[in-house]
Amino acid sequence: MSLRFQWKLTFVLVFISLFFLLFYGLFSHILNSTFLSLFLSLLLIFPLAYAISNFLSRPFLRMVQTASGFVPDLFKAENRLSSGDELERLSKTIEQMGTQLRNRIDEISKERDYLQTVLKGMMEGVLMVDERGRILMVNEALRTLLSLSVDVADRMPLEIIRNAELEAAIRKVLQSGESEAFELTLPSSGGKTFEVNVVGIPSSAEEGDKGSERIKGAIAVFHDITRLKDLERVRQDFVANVSHELRTPLTTIKGYAETLLEGALGEEVAHRFVQVIKRHADRLTKIVEDLLMLSRIESKEFRLKIEAIPVQELIHDVLDYIKGAAEKKRVAVSPAEIPPSLIIEADRNYLEQVFTNLLDNAIKYSPEGGVVRISAIERDQEEIEFSIKDNGIGIPKEDLTRIFERFYRVDKGRSQELGGTGLGLSIVKHIVQAHGGRVWAESQPGEGSIFYFTVPVSKKS
After folding, report:
1. Is 433 strand, coil or helix?
2. Are 184 and 197 spatial neighbours (Cβ–Cβ below 8 Å)?
3. Which domain holds residue 35?
4. What does the longest C-alpha to C-alpha distance in the chain come to?
5. Is this prediction's pTM over 0.85?
6. Most buried pick, 77, 83, 263, 350, via CB within 10 A?
7. Can you tell me the distance from the alpha carbon of 327 to that of 148, in angstroms, rounded to the nearest whole number?
8. Cα–Cα distance between 353 and 290 in angstroms, integer?
9. Last residue of a domain, one of 184, 200, 224
10. Range of lowest pLDDT (192-201, 267-276, 346-355)
11. What is the pLDDT of residue 437?
12. Which among 174, 204, 224 is the end of a domain?
């Protein structure tokens, strides 16, 4: 580009020189002169014209170079024009403009990188739309939360997140500029519940009229509150259930105690009333004891006394504990053949509690003459998988995911009739998890249930 400009200027100067030379040649011919002087003059004028054009074009070429590049390396002292006239001022102005532009570009790049880092590190999902309501971007957290794999750029939110409430909220924010907050449950996310906050993006002062604020987009932030909702539901259920569990025996105790206070009862009737009061008092005591045990297990100070325990020996001891209950209901408890070499690392007292609770339930819900089977299998030399199988009434599929919650009962009336507190399976779950194991159940109504749990294998075995 610099050579092109320089040659153009050279040819202009040569053309002007030729015009004068031709004019001079015509008159010299009249004066009986030859064209030799014309040729010699041309040889002298051409280099002179090139030198003059080079001198005149150099300042402009420097400014073109600076303005076209806007690269910091070009903003050096040797690129500055020092002619002391308007060209020097123009050169300095262009240089300052380029420096400011480069600084602004650097600032924008840093802000963009910072924003991308923040969005990438957020656990909340973020969706940004322009003033037309079309998606500009979503962060990785939202892609993960909603399992988005398609390209979302320039599409409407309703095309990606099929929820009319979200679409309406974004539209309202774009029109009014007022923020919106609401809860949203999306089937596409596996039934997760989100708290969504939508806020408008105001235009800068330079983009809009003074005194008015135009909304040029909106941002929707998705907070996953599924776990909080589940915990809230569990808390509400717990309060309702514990109130019910305590109210029932307390009401009975109060009623019988008031009757006894009134007197005029025979000794036999009074004795029966006292027995009822004692039975319900024992039930209250058992509920309180189970609640205290759960509290201990969940506390940060809870510690297990881990020791190597032979599985065969452990099951033999547990069978002695539940022998009376099994014989009373004529239920046969049959352990599978377990090798003496099978050893686990666990807290003996708490693990016996797990077996006792599970076997007690299996016996209670089995018919008379039923069979309860116990087995233990080593899995990948890492853990022992225990199972307790009964042929009782079974558990409906919809209840399997909740049976380990506190006070949750599949059949409330039958459970209370059998004397349970509703805390046994919750205690089992917490003890097993404290050992680093897992607990789950399989069941078919009318066919029975199988409860599984795992405990790490002893490294010394």
Report:
1. helix
2. no
3. 2-103
4. 167
5. no
6. 350
7. 58
8. 11
9. 224
10. 267-276
11. 92
12. 224
